[in-house]
Amino acid sequence: MFNKKCKVISNHEIAPSIFEMVIENRDIAIEAEPGQFLHIKVNSGSDILLRRPISICEVNNDNITIVYQIIGKGTTQLSLVRSLEFIDVIGPIGNGFPIDKEKKCAVIGGGIGIAPLLELSKRLKNCDAYLGFKADAYKIDDFERYCDHVIVSTEDGSSGNKGYITDFMKHIEKYEVVYTCGPKIMMKKVKELCHVLPSVTCYISMEERMGCGIGACLVCTCKTINTDDSKWHYKKVCTDGPVFHAEEVELSD
Ligand SMILES: Cc1cc2nc3c(=O)[nH]c(=O)nc-3n(C[C@H](O)[C@H](O)[C@H](O)COP(=O)(O)OP(=O)(O)OC[C@H]3O[C@@H](n4cnc5c(N)ncnc54)[C@H](O)[C@@H]3O)c2cc1C
Ligand code: FES
Fold first, then answer.
1. What range defines the domain where residue 189 resides?
2. What are the DSSP calls for 31-99, one per residue?
3. Would the CB of 209 count as within 6 Å of ligand 1?
């Protein structure tokens, strides 16, 4: 993990309220694994003290791409950063997705949850992608470059199939590993589908509000079950996750 001032190569809107930023840093790019995240100080001159966690979407040589949705003050500030400015970044942080290139895999993303699945798709050999959006699908071309099949759905029917992406996941038993990131309700459904199929291993990327991002403040804890003693515990999403075995985490509403 590094703390670096990273040069912003580009930062622009790719869909309504969705921005793609490319930053440059060799050390972070070399260490970055799919599923890990960056903890970003959104603007050195602003009154926003807490950093914002954003997933690593793709790595190309010394460049790291992130894709983020404008939610509040922090992400709005981030969208105002211009090319050639520098931002303060801690990363890469956390445990990413376990990768087994030989296995038949599916990545299942909902909305901005597709972001950490792109670099993962790139590193897997046999991978299909299921990508669901409310409206305005994005990054589809990139997934098509790395995946065997890409299935898209939008709730308004503007791209791909009309409906929830989980409605179009037929024959999930053909996969050995399923990776998912997105709204809790979608990940819950994916977990349920995989749970009844002992041959399918499912990994979930969790999202919780964060403070320090480095395991010190306990703001980001999530409820987990220890499969050995069946007892509930709490783990830190920032350093124990954000990726967990689906059977290990409770996805409360
Ligand atoms: C491991 C991880 C990876 C993430 N990856 C991405 C990504 O790739 N793209 C993306 O658009 N978003 C991602 N998020 C969510 C993103 O961090 C929040 O949307 C963002 O922090 C909102 O900040 P804000 O100031 O604009 O919103 P505000 O609502 O004003 O934020 C107020 C506070 O709440 C926190 N917060 C608000 N929403 C979330 C949230 N959903 N998750 C965690 N903290 C939140 C903020 O960090 C801040 O401390 C990720 C979150 C986590 C935990
Ligand atoms: S954010 Fe502080 S322990 Fe995870």
1. 98-205
2. H--TT-EEEEE--TTSS--S-EEEE--EEETTEEEEEEE--SHHHHHHHT--TT-EEEEEEEESB----
3. yes
> How many distinct structural domains can be found in the chain?
3
Give yes or no for residue 48 having a pLDDT over 80.
no
| Ligand 1 neighbourhood includes 52 CB (under 6 angstroms) | yes
Is 49's pLDDT higher than 90?
A: no
* Average pLDDT for 26-49: 89
Residue 14 tokens read as: 């790719």
187 in the same domain as 103: yes
Check pLDDT > 80 for residue 27. yes
Q: Average pLDDT, whole number, for the chain?
A: 95
Predicted local confidence at residue 151, as pLDDT? 97
Instruction: Pick the atom of ligand 1 nearest to 116's CA.
Output: 8
Closest to 246 measured CA to CA, from 199, 192, 171, 169 = 192
- The atom number, within ligand 1, closest to the CA of 75 reads 26
Residue 234 beta carbon below 6 angstroms from any ligand 2 atom = no
Tell me how far apart the alpha carbons of residues 172 and 201 are, in angstroms, rounded to a whole number.
11
249 plus 151 within the same structural domain: no
This model's pTM is above 0.85:
yes
